[in-house]
Amino acid sequence: MLGVFKWCQQVFEKLGPSLYDFLRKNNYSSFPIDLVREIGRQLLDCIAFMHELRLIHTDLKPENVLLVSSDYLKVPDYKGSSRSPKDGSFSKRVPKSSAIKVIDFGSTTYDRQDQSYIVSTRHYRAPEVILGLGWSYPCDIWSVGCILVELCTGEALFQTHENLEHLAMMERVFGPLPNHMLRKTDRHAEKYVRKGRLDWPEGAASRESIKAVTKLPRLQNLIMQNVDHSAGDLIHLLQGLLRYDPSERLTARAALRHPFFTRDHLKRY
């Protein structure tokens, strides 16, 4: 058994916690915007490299992004005082290093035509996947956008486990789904559409479901509530990463050229 353990040590490097585990242990406090920028840059660089190899990850989420180091600092967190740690202090943890590594390539696939089976963990699933329109590289880009929002707020953007509610949440945050996408839904998703629009709130499963949707703010308001500076650049970037139509979504390489990453206000960690 000891020999197996030593072999594993030689194969797998020791890394820190996942972004999700760091958020969870940090009482779901948001990451500083400059740290979000550095993590986003590395994440997009990784995905750009994969896409250039014609590979699609298909399961990007905070659980599958690991910090390289477990080291952290404690900084004041007056905004998060209502969600402060058990010791009552107004502080939160911030990673000492922004270095990350993407893991879990078990669902990774080569790009092929007519891929329509369900991919991605629910909260990070793109609209074309839910609507059965087929998917490709842009589904990874949508997931990256959802991850960046979560790092800025501390919580998953779409906290749901039901397709119609999920689509309604998207419309609440981004506005109406395009008609051309709703018209092309497959036979499994056509029940979510009625008279050319999303069947909401008429088709809602419960009042609680309607409440869960209506409490969500628009994307611009959500970011402005949680980001002290660079909010304008970040909103514009997210609007490119989270476009409904996958053909209009930013590519990973194009996203890396966005002012959110290229302006000289970067702060290195």
Task: Write structural notes for this entry.
- The protein is mainly alpha-helical and 269 residues long.
- It has a single domain, classed as Transferase(Phosphotransferase) domain 1 (Transferase(Phosphotransferase), domain 1), CATH 1.10.510.
- Helix content is 41%, strand content 9%.
- The protein is built from twelve helices and eight strands.
- The protein has a two-stranded antiparallel ribbon with strand order 1-6.
- About 2% of the residues have low confidence.
Helix and strand succession?
A: HHHEEEEEEHHHHEEHHHHH
**Tell me about the biggest sheet?**
2 strands, antiparallel
Overall pLDDT confidence = 91
State the fourth-level CATH superfamily. Transferase(Phosphotransferase) domain 1
Give the overall shape. globular
Note the gap between the termini: 39 Å
Name the CATH architecture: Orthogonal Bundle
Number of domains: 1
Q: How would you concisely characterize the structure shown here?
A:
This protein is mainly alpha-helical and 269 residues long. Helix content is 41%, strand content 9%.
Write the layout of secondary structure elements.
Elements: H1 2-11, H2 19-25, H3 33-52, E1 55-56, E2 65-67, E3 72-76, E4 91-95, E5 100-102, E6 109-110, H4 127-130, H5 138-153, H6 163-174, H7 179-183, E7 193-194, E8 197-198, H8 207-214, H9 219-226, H10 231-241, H11 252-256, H12 259-262
Antiparallel strand pairs: 1-6, 2-5, 3-4, 7-8
Helix pairs in contact: 3-5, 6-8, 9-10
